[in-house]
């Protein structure tokens, strides 16, 4: 997202509008194919972690997916001591802005979530950036939470690469995270609380609309 210095964060909390450059995210929407590999549903609630640029939009999209029971914006890929917005924004901590997604695999499986991620959440060909946001903290990355998730993610990335549906090679990384650290309260469900915030209108609401249009069976208002 547009970096929020302390004074900007204060303005945000006061409801001030900030100008943000337009994103190309909406133009890059792709209807990715169904994953060929789908692991059988375990019957237990599962957790997945996705990084795809500003966590406002990632959380905003997954919050509208049927079968997702909870989402949390946060930081993954770095150490707990540096897992705060001001420090992560410097791009030196190893963290990526991420979203923890809790889901019921009997209603939506991990492969379905990957398809949504690669179709409307992130541009998987961008390296250390998404839309107007630059730096490794905005990288496209998956943090599998089980060997089964890692297997499905590797297979789907290979499937997408072989299909050549993107103009450039897929840059999304599979990473291990020592932990997931929730972001500050004002970042949580930011899109839902601030639907008319300029950054959200330009960069993120089009992604939710793309979810509704491309995956109507998975979308809920």
Write a structural description.
The protein is an alpha+beta fold and 221 residues long. The protein has one domain (41-212): Peptide methionine sulphoxide reductase MsrA (Peptide Methionine Sulfoxide Reductase, Chain A, 2-Layer Sandwich), CATH 3.30.1060.10. Helices cover 32% and strands 17% of the residues. It has 7 helices and 8 strands. It has helices at residues 6-13, 55-62, 85-88, 110-121, 147-163, 190-193, 198-214; strands at 46-52, 68-76, 96-103, 129-130, 133-134, 140-143, 173-174, 180-182. It has a 6-stranded mixed β-sheet, with helices on one face. Strands 4-5 form a two-stranded antiparallel sheet. Helix 5 links the parallel strand 6 (140-143) and strand 7. Helix 4 (110-121) packs across helix 5 (147-163) and helix 4 packs across helix 7 (198-214). The longest helix is centred in the C-terminal third of the chain and has 17 residues, at 147-163. The protein is globular. 42% of the residues are buried. Residues 2-26 have low confidence and may be disordered.
Task: Give structural attributes.
disordered N terminus, six-stranded mixed β-sheet, alpha+beta
* CATH domain class: Alpha Beta
**Apparent shape:** globular
Q: How would you write the strand order of the largest sheet?
A: 7-6-1-3-2-8
Oligomer: single chain
Q: CATH topology, which one?
A: Peptide Methionine Sulfoxide Reductase, Chain A
**What string gives the helices and strands in order?**
HEHEHEHEEEHEEHH
Distance between the termini: 24 Å
**Helical region count?**
7
Number of DSSP E strands:
8
CATH-defined architecture: 2-Layer Sandwich
Please name the fourth-level CATH homologous superfamily.
Answer: Peptide methionine sulphoxide reductase MsrA
- Sheet/helix structural class: alpha+beta
Largest sheet: 6 strands, mixed
Helix proportion range: 25-40%
Q: What is the typical, i.e. mean, pLDDT?
A: 89
- Point out poorly predicted stretches: 2-26
Tally of structural domains: 1
In terms of DSSP E residues, the strand content is 15-25%
Radius of gyration over C-alpha positions, nearest whole angstrom: 16 Å
């Amino acid at each position: 997202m547009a970096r929020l210095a302390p004074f900007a964060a204060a303005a945000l909390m006061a409801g001030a509008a900030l100008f943000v450059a337009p994103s190309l995210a909406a133009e890059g929407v792709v209807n990715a194919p169904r994953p060929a590999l789908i692991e059988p549903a375990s019957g237990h609630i599962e957790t997945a972690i996705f990084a795809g640029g500003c966590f406002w939009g990632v959380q905003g999209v997954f919050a509208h997916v049927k079968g997702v029971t909870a989402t949390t914006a946060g930081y993954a890929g770095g150490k707990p001591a540096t897992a705060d917005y001001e420090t992560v924004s410097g791009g030196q901590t190893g963290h990526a802005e991420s979203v923890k997604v809790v889901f019921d695999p009997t209603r939506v499986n991990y492969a379905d979530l990957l398809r949504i991620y690669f179709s409307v959440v992130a541009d998987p060909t961008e390296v250390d950036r998404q839309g107007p946001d630059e730096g490794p903290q905005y990288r496209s990355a998956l943090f599998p939470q089980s060997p089964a998730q890692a297997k499905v993610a590797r297979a789907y990335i290979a499937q997408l690469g072989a299909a050549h549906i993107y103009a450039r090679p897929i840059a999304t990384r599979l990473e291990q995270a020592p932990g997931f650290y929730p972001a500050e309260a004002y970042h949580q469900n930011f899109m839902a609380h601030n639907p008319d915030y300029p950054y959200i209108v330009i960069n993120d609401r089009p992604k939710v609309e793309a979810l509704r249009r491309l995956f109507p069976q998975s979308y809920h208002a």
